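Why should sequence recovery work at all? Because a backbone constrains its sequence more than one might expect. Tight turns favour small or flexible residues, buried strands favour hydrophobic ones, and helices have their own preferences. The token representation captures these environments compactly. In the example below, the structure is given first.
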């Protein structure tokens, strides 16, 4: 997968996996990584799917309606890429924390839903429920931060609550952070993610 990697202060430091929103690139979330942990390794990946020229991490049939087969395949592809990247760049595969926005948050949530050991934690900015009707793996010892907008037209507060509940029922420790805004990624929620991360991983 197209990506960039930046080495952190120490090879055993956590690795932030950056996953952009629809139409983004691997450059988009680099400023967030610096705010959240400037000594972490950074692996920033570009989605392999194009929708009218816009990179994404999996196909959708309509806005908010996911192509489930593609979602499952692309999630496995990303998980395998993480294995390969950890070997190539010699970072600790067990210490990956995803930071995803919108479509990138959705595939990060899908990693947690489908691959038990894919992520140590995740900061999900404006995620949706990636899939329903499956049994989630045991997510105890996984920490998840969800930033949601009270007026998000793509992801309703009910859907954010639903995702929270699904993750908690699977054993994850979840912090649900609300912004009185829409789907945009705000400075305040990045700051809250930094505080959440700092208490757990620094
Ligand atoms: C998705 O397709 O993943 C969501 O609708 C968010 C987005 O617009 O990318």
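From this structural description, the recovered sequence reads:
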């Amino acid at each position: 997968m197209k990506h960039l990697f930046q080495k952190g202060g120490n090879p055993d430091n956590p690795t932030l996996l950056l996953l952009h929103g629809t139409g983004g690139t691997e450059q988009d979330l680099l400023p967030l990584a610096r705010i959240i942990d400037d000594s972490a390794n950074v692996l920033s990946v570009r989605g392999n799917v194009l929708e009218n020229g816009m990179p994404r991490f999996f196909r959708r049939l309509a806005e908010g309606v996911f192509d489930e087969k593609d979602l499952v395949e692309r999630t496995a592809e990303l998980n395998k890429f993480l294995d390969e990247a950890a070997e190539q760049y010699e970072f600790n595969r067990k210490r990956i924390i995803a930071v995803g926005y919108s479509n990138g948050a959705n595939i990060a949530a899908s990693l947690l839903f489908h691959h038990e050991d894919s992520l140590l934690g995740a900061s999900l900015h404006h995620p949706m429920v990636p899939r329903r009707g499956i049994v989630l793996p045991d997510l105890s010892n996984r920490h998840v931060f969800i930033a949601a907008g009270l007026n998000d037209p793509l992801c309703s507060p009910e859907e954010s609550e639903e995702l929270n509940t699904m993750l908690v029922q699977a054993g994850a420790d979840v912090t649900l952070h609300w912004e009185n805004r829409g789907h945009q990624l705000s400075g305040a929620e990045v700051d809250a993610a930094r505080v959440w991360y700092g208490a757990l991983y620094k």
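A few observations help interpret the result. The mean pLDDT is 97.
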